[in-house]
Amino acid sequence: MERPIGMFDSGFGGLTVARAVIDLLPSEHLVYIGDTGRYPYGSKPSDLVRGYARELAWSLVDEHDVKLVVVACNTAAAAGLDDLRAELPVPMLDVVAPGAAALVEATTSGRIGVIGTVGTVASGAYLHAVQSAAAVAGLDVELCSAACPGFVEFVERGQVSGDEVTVLAERLLAPVRAVDVDALLLGCTHYPFLARVISDVMGPGVTLVSSADETAFAVHRLLEHLDLLRPGTDPGEHRFRSSGDIDRFRDLGARLLGPELNHTEAWSPS
Ligand code: DGL
To answer: What is the Å distance from ligand 1's center to 4 Cα?
Structure first.
């Protein structure tokens, strides 16, 4: 129960999930690793990304004795982590199924969209997850998927608004605008940092759905079910590690996540 929750992403994106988990479960200890030294994952082959995910998950287990691993990265989850899930001695959750369920819940028209990295969209992971969520909800949905190469790089540079990112968003979001979706899932954990721009481009009739809150609810449900919630109301400790420049991770990370990110430690694959 005292053991931390472990979480990882290719960089800053998973901080959207970390924020939601810290807000929902303030007493839980958390260790977050941002693999900024090797980002982006979205343009890399899936077997390479699976290898990275394995190193990160095992490092959280071996070095931090985490009680749960949260894959706060759609691209890593979409690369297929069933083998890793089976070999880990602790449960593992990811953002794909919670995001798909939230998307299906958000639509009225049944025309929905998902945007993500090239790797995530090519994997078809959301097609399967949305079909399952729609079947559970008894709904007919039409899904339009679009890859948004370049969005992650803007976030990693800390550039989350302005003309350049807006022009790119107008081009990349054209396919989902053309089919008139009423709900759009931000299927990359970096994208909530661009929500203002994406929302301006999509227009007021489109609900943006982020998987961060839904994933935090899933973490809560699982820990409660396994009787692993940390008891009491003492605030949890939050540790942040990065495989890139740790001062930069702390500075930009604090801007993106908030004051809990006041210190960063180095992480490197063993
Ligand atoms: N934040 C990650 C995701 O959710 C991936 C970003 C990347 O490294 O390309 O897909």
So the answer is: 23
Model-level pTM? 0.94
Q: What is the pLDDT of residues 227-251, one digit of tens each?
A: 999 998 899 999 999 999 999 999 9
The predicted-structure confidence for 186-214, as pLDDT tens digits, reads as follows 999 999 999 999 999 999 999 999 989 99
The number of the ligand 1 atom at minimal distance from the alpha carbon of 120 is: 10
Q: What is the mean pLDDT of the chain?
A: 95
Q: Can you give the three-state secondary structure of the chain, one letter per residue?
A: CCCCEEEEECCCCCHHHHHHHHHHCCCCCEEEEECCCCCCCCCCCHHHHHHHHHHHHHHHHHHHCCCEEEECCHHHHHCCCHHHHHHCCCCEEECHHHHHHHHHHHCCCCEEEEEECHHHHHHCHHHHHHHHHHHHHCCCCEEEEEECCCHHHHHHCCCCCCHHHHHHHHHHCHHHHHCCCCEEEECCCCHHHHHHHHHHHHCCCCEEEEHHHHHHHHHHHHHHHCCCCCCCCCCCCEEEEECCCHHHHHHHHHHHHCCCCCCCEECCCC
Instruction: Say which CATH topology domain 5-94+213-266 has.
Output: Rossmann fold (3.40.50)
Supply the pLDDT for residue 43: 92
- Domain residue ranges in the chain: 5-94+213-266, 96-211
Provide the annotated active-site residues: 73, 188
Ligand 1: distance of its center to the CA of 42 in Å? 6
| Residue 179 reports pLDDT greater than 90 | yes
